[in-house]
Amino acid sequence: MKAILYICHGSRLQEACKEATAFVTSCMERVSAPIQQICFLELAPPSIAEGITTCVQKGATEIVIVPIFLLAAVHVKKDIPEELERLQNQYPHVSFSYGNPFGVSRKLVTAVLNGSGIKMIGKRVTLLLVARGSSDAETLRDVRDIALLFEAADEVVKVEVGYLAAAKPQFEEKLHELVQTTNAPIVILPYLLFTGLLMKRIEKAVRKNNHSHIVLCPYLSKNQAFQDMLIERTEEMIREDVHVPINSANKE
């Protein structure tokens, strides 16, 4: 029997965990698997180990693991696979398969542009893409690729990138620079799936900067396209059209 285990990051902010659970639960209603469970990598229960155990107790012989992450950074490439390898040894009779994060997607960028309100501004804007940041060079390259996709839009004059952790330039520094040098509308796009402490940090920085043309877009899980893509990819894995080994985290 097949099971789906959705792995979210987790947050100290209860609101963020509730959002992640609601997002995945809404998708589960459209996924054709008899067993579906949600767990968190860190900071919130249930853990990955608890999620796997629950699937097995419900009769799962095959578990499709779906990471609810934007890009393949250290968590997706190292932390989750290491935990899954340990659990695979604990349950050798159960088959594990591991999916991809959302990754770099023109379809998602188009959906974000259409749903962010940028087209309603009426002027070409400077877009500040705010990413979490990573020490992983491939992840930073993915962020730059996403920025280039946004920059190709007719509504965008240029795209600047600011990071919230582990990479430079820092978001607050980049925002301050743009406020001082840009007369055009500044659209801040949090490239984050859910609310959380990082989103609260962005909101605080926007309140502190006195600029009459700053527009703060919603974070990404508000956009239906992310649910649709998650459902599509999960169904592909259920049909065994897609299989990514646990010890590999490939970029789509």
UniProtKB/TrEMBL annotation:
<protein>
    <submittedName>
        <fullName>Sirohydrochlorin chelatase</fullName>
    </submittedName>
</protein>
<keyword id="KW-0479">Metal-binding</keyword>
<dbReference type="Pfam" id="PF01903">
    <property type="entry name" value="CbiX"/>
</dbReference>
<keyword id="KW-0456">Lyase</keyword>
<dbReference type="InterPro" id="IPR002762">
    <property type="entry name" value="CbiX-like"/>
</dbReference>
<dbReference type="InterPro" id="IPR050963">
    <property type="entry name" value="Sirohydro_Cobaltochel/CbiX"/>
</dbReference>
